[in-house]
């Protein structure tokens, strides 16, 4: 992926340098520096994407799982966003929990690092990717949900998760 980003930056740089022409020899050094700085800034920015296959997510309920890996997003071709349901495999679990390591479970994404626009024009974005485990009917497996949960879950018909949550963002 980084090689692809580097090639895009270098293509832009060559186009920028070719556009200057031969008459502006003094500007070549400064434009090259600008192009190099822009590419470095572009590469250093953290790229936030959808929750897709093989994404590791933190479990924020008391079902017994600590970390899951997304197997499939049930809605959308690119991946899952806030409020979407995913199928996941449990990677880490507590010793005497309701779910065990290796179990295939359903989960609702309650926190995502990708920005999501709201109706009032603001955007919501979290620091991590987190999920609440649910059964096939969409009811939570655990009895508590830790951390903030966005109120967009109400539109997606996950009201039970909102009632169990500590804080609604």
From TrEMBL:
* One family name in Pfam for this protein: Ribosomal_L14
Which SUPFAM superfamilies is this protein grouped with? Ribosomal protein L14
- PROSITE patterns in the record: RIBOSOMAL_L14
Q: Which one of the record's GO molecular function terms can you name?
A: large ribosomal subunit rRNA binding
GO BP terms in the entry: translation
> What GO cellular-component annotations does this UniProt entry give?
mitochondrial large ribosomal subunit
Checking InterPro entries in the record gives: Ribosomal_uL14, Ribosomal_uL14_bac-type, Ribosomal_uL14_CS, Ribosomal_uL14_sf
Matching SMART domains, A to Z? Answer: Ribosomal_L14
What residues form the membrane-spanning segments? none
Q: Which UniProt keywords apply?
A: Ribonucleoprotein, Ribosomal protein, RNA-binding, rRNA-binding
Q: Which family does it belong to?
A: Belongs to the universal ribosomal protein uL14 family.
NCBIfam families assigned to the protein according to its UniProt record, in alphabetical order: rplN_bact
Protein name as annotated = Ribosomal protein L14
What organism is the protein native to? Protea cynaroides
